[in-house]
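User: Here's a chain of 119 residues. Predict its fold as tokens.
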Amino acid sequence: QVQLVESGGGLAQPGGSPRLSCAASGFTFSKNAMSWARLAPGKGLEWVSGISSDSSDTYYADSVKGRFTISRDNFKNTLYLQLNSLKPEDTALYYCAKDGWPWGAGTARGQGTQVTVST
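Assistant: Prediction complete.
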């Protein structure tokens, strides 16, 4: 079955640059678009970024454009999200998912990795 496991979160300082990873298994990773979304305290799920199966196209929410970079390694079946210039408002639980946005009830996604931006 599809399995997605996020990692790389933790406590980061404003301006920090952690990299999130999402290890995928149970499907043909190289044939699927992938995406990231986040859930901040008191807010709804927010789409963050997406990438096509061959990395030819990437997409970003305005809130992260120019600061975050999505990438993937189809040989390692791993999706990445490089977070740069972190702000306190980036604090959230970050999820990766198989396929693009919008996510539906049947969208396969991981358990999430928490990023907390604080001094």
